[in-house]
């Protein structure tokens, strides 16, 4: 399979990588091949010490319409089919969440089912006006995957998360912004530009600081206060010993912009 027809594509331009969901004719619905491709891409990025920000976007008219329902409809053993799909896509989500880089979801069109779960699993999210969000799982008689049940209550609270998941009503981009599901609401056709601006700001910041902020925030729900204070102390001291912290201090007192290097 040529890269052009791969179900997910990775391109790297300097310190910014772009991961593209590449099944536009199927509205980027996840099938086993896409799940495996995403898992392998995020595993590759985890080893890349040059990339500092990752933009996740969908080709075609939508970000992602969810899982590939035709795949399940045609499966004689639906339990086995579910396992074959969920294992690699859950590995991909876990890898994405633990990447040292900051992942920015760039959203348009429909963001539904697994697509909404994947978008919520990213570190930051930008959507253009007109984007429609829907958890959608209840509409096909099933429950969330791809960390949707983990991310949604953390972003909006348990009561609102239950409403969104149980009723599966459409949410506009404006509603998603009000609920905290996205960080930026861009004008039509400007979501790529806004995502790139965020990525460039991340790249211009201290790599160690960005990585440690992400790690601390993501582990905070699993720690008690004492554990989190210890994690903060260790991260701060380790980062303070690096050259970028010294550069930031010198830049502050010299009233100039710091120049950060490395991961």
TrEMBL record:
PROSITE patterns: ENOYL_COA_HYDRATASE (PS00166)
A Pfam family the protein falls into: ECH_1
Classification via Gene3D superfamilies: 2-enoyl-CoA Hydratase, Chain A, domain 1 (3.90.226.10), Lyase 2-enoyl-coa Hydratase, Chain A, domain 2 (1.10.12.10)
InterPro entries from the UniProt entry: ClpP/crotonase-like_dom_sf (IPR029045), Enoyl-CoA_hyd/isom_CS (IPR018376), Enoyl-CoA_hydra/iso (IPR001753), Enoyl-CoA_hydra_C (IPR014748)
Recorded GO MF terms: catalytic activity
PANTHER family per the UniProt record, alphabetical: EG:BACN32G11.4 PROTEIN, ENOYL-COA HYDRATASE
Family note: Belongs to the enoyl-CoA hydratase/isomerase family.
Stated name of the protein: Enoyl-CoA hydratase
Organism listed in the record: Zhongshania marina
Lineage: Bacteria, Pseudomonadati, Pseudomonadota, Gammaproteobacteria, Cellvibrionales
């Amino acid at each position: 399979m040529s890269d052009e027809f791969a179900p997910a594509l990775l391109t790297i331009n300097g310190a910014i990588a772009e991961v593209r969901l590449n099944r536009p004719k199927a509205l980027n619905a996840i099938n086993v091949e896409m799940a495996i491709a995403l898992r392998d891409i995020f595993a590759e990025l985890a080893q890349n010490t040059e990339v500092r920000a990752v933009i996740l976007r969908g080709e075609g008219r939508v970000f992602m319409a969810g899982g590939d329902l035709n795949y399940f409809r045609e499966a004689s053993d639906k339990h086995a089919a579910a396992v074959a799909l969920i294992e690699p896509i859950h590995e991909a989500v876990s890898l994405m969440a633990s990447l040292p880089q900051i992942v920015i979801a760039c959203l348009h069109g429909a963001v539904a089912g697994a697509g909404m779960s994947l978008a919520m699993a990213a570190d930051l999210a930008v959507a253009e006006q007109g984007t429609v969000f829907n958890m959608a799982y209840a509409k096909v008689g099933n429950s969330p995957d791809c960390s949707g049940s983990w991310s949604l209550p953390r972003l909006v609270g348990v009561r609102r998360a239950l409403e969104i998941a149980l009723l599966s009503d459409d949410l506009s981009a404006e509603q998603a912004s009000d609920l905290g599901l996205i960080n930026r609401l861009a004008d039509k056709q400007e979501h790529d530009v806004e995502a790139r601006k965020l990525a460039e700001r991340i790249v211009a910041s201290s790599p160690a600081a960005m990585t440690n902020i992400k790690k601390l925030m993501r582990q905070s729900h699993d720690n008690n206060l004492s554990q989190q204070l210890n994690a903060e102390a260790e991260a701060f001291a380790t980062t303070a010993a690096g050259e970028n912290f010294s550069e930031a201090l010198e830049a502050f007192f010299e009233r100039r912009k710091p120049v950060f290097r490395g991961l």
